[in-house]
Each structure stands twice: as structure tokens, then as C-alpha cells.
Design a protein that fits this description.
Order of helices and strands: HHHHHHHHH
Structural class: mainly alpha
Number of helices: 9
Strand content: under 5%
Helix content: 55-70%
């Protein structure tokens, strides 16, 4: 009986050992079987899982069927050099930021705003019309005077550049040409020579050879000179009214009464009766033609 029990225990041990060996060998057999099906990853078979080898596509649509791990797709449009929306926004914001500077140094705005300021000071009205009204009126007159120049810039620079006909260098040149044609007649020769002397350069006397770095400040100096001269001419009739009122007050013994307090209503009355705003704006606009 003991012999049978011992033999039974040995058989059970052998069966358990065989089962353990079978369990341990099971993953390796599965791995080998799977590798045999895959093929090219182990080099043991000629079967490949690649649908199309790289470079065998015949048209762009076949590119999406290539079985590659990492792909980089670059797309571009054929707009012939048109600006991207983000770049267009950046350029627009930049132009808006420097627009006040360009408006003052290369247009008629400086002369107009200074003359209007002298007119208000001659009337002795401190805040009438207010600064907002003077600036708005100056802007309207500036766009009215510069309208032919802006139209030429739009036709010769903006529209061709948007269509991709010209490049950036030609665009800048076509923008500056109308502005130079406007600034050159308004610039005095002595102001050009002044900035040539400051820069230590020689001028051959031709307008076409003047660089923008000299033409622009010379134009501003000329505008300031002419604007102050026009302001002086506007002051003359109002100074006469102040002198007459002061003489009358002194003759009446009212020396403690400020003459400006009495003369300001007479100035406003004279200015309104003479239609002063129409005369000043009309003559001011004609100085640019």
C-alpha cells in the first residue's frame, strides 16, 4: 500500500513539473508564432506589413496611404505672394501706430493746425473752439488737400502690391514719389541747404537728388515758417482792436479795467461779420496750390 502511495506521489510530482514546464514555455511559443506572422520585424519570413514602400506613390492622394511612422506634410497656397492674414494685421497695426507721425511730417496738417491755433489765440478765446474741434477740422482739411496724393498712392502702390505685381522696394518707392511731389514745392531751398550743411553733405542743386532724410525735416521747417507768418498776418487786425480799446479806456480813466475783457466781444463781432472762418480756411487751402 505504501508503495502505491509513493508511486502515486511521484506521478503527481512529474505531472506538476510537466505542467509547470508547459506554462513557462507557453509565452515563448506564442511570441515565436506571432513573429512568424509579422515577418519583416524578425527577418524570419518574406511577408511584409508595409502597404506601399516609401516613394512609390504616383499622385498626392497616394501619399496618405503610405505606411510610415512619422510624416511631415507641408501645404502652401498659390496666391502669388499675397500677405497672410496675421501679417496683414501686424502691418496694419504698425501703420496705425506711426500714422500720427507721418501725418505731421509729410502732409499739410502741421501748417493748418498752427494757423487755426493762432486764430483762436488772436480772438482771445481760451477754449473756443476746443482742441478736439481744431484737430478734427485740421484732419478734414488735410485729407481734402492730400486727396490727389492719396489717390495716386492707392493706384500706383497699394493696388499693385496687393495684386502681387510689385515687390516691397517698388511699393515704398511708389508711396514716396507722390509724397515727394507734394513736399518739394512747399520746401524752401535755404532749408534744404541748412540740413545739407548739418549732415556735412554737398548738394548738386537738383531736387531729385535730395534724400528723404533731408527733404522731410526741411519741409517741416518750411511749414513752420509759413504757418507763423500766416499767424502773424491774422493777429494784425485783432491787435489794432486791442490798441483802440486800450486807448479809449485810458482816455476815460479806466486804467484798472483789463482791455482784453472789453476788446474780446468786439473781436468776435468783427470776426463773425467778416466771415473769418471762411476767409482763413479758404486762403489757407489756396497756399498749397
Amino acid at each position: 500500500m505504501q508503495v502505491l502511495l509513493s508511486a502515486g506521489k511521484n506521478i503527481i510530482k512529474v505531472l506538476c513539473f510537466a505542467a509547470l514546464v508547459a506554462i513557462l514555455s507557453l509565452p515563448f511559443s506564442l511570441r515565436a508564432h506571432a513573429a512568424g506572422n509579422i515577418g519583416p520585424s524578425t527577418g524570419e519570413t518574406d511577408v511584409s506589413t508595409t502597404i506601399d514602400p516609401p516613394g512609390t506613390y504616383t499622385d498626392p492622394q497616394d501619399l496618405n496611404t503610405l505606411n510610415t511612422v512619422n510624416r511631415l506634410t507641408i501645404t502652401y497656397n498659390g496666391d502669388n505672394g499675397s500677405l497672410n492674414a496675421s501679417l496683414r494685421i501686424l502691418i496694419t497695426l504698425t501703420i496705425i501706430a506711426i500714422a500720427p507721425l507721418l501725418l505731421m511730417v509729410m502732409t499739410s496738417f502741421t501748417r493748418i493746425i498752427i494757423v487755426l491755433h493762432f486764430t483762436r489765440a488772436a480772438l482771445n478765446t481760451q477754449t473756443a473752439p476746443p482742441n478736439q474741434v481744431l484737430i478734427a477740422l485740421s484732419l478734414i482739411l488735410t485729407f481734402f488737400i492730400m486727396q490727389p496724393t492719396f489717390q495716386e498712392i492707392n493706384a500706383n502702390a497699394v493696388i499693385p502690391f496687393e495684386a502681387g505685381v510689385i515687390d516691397q522696394d517698388e511699393f515704398l518707392e511708389n508711396v514716396m514719389t507722390p509724397l515727394r511731389n507734394f513736399m518739394e514745392p512747399q520746401t524752401q531751398v535755404k532749408d534744404v541747404r541748412l540740413f545739407y550743411d548739418i549732415a556735412g553733405m554737398e548738394w548738386d542743386g537738383t531736387i531729385e537728388s535730395i534724400p528723404n532724410s533731408i527733404l522731410i525735416p526741411a519741409f517741416m521747417i518750411s511749414e513752420l515758417r509759413l504757418a507763423f507768418w500766416i499767424g502773424f498776418m491774422i493777429y494784425i487786425p485783432f491787435i489794432v482792436i486791442d490798441m483802440v480799446v486800450a486807448s479809449v479806456l485810458m482816455s476815460m480813466g479806466m486804467m484798472m479795467l483789463p482791455p482784453t475783457t472789453i476788446s474780446m466781444p468786439f473781436k468776435i463781432l468783427l470776426f463773425v461779420l467778416a466771415d473769418g472762418w471762411s476767409l482763413i480756411i479758404g486762403q489757407l487751402v489756396r497756399t498749397f496750390y
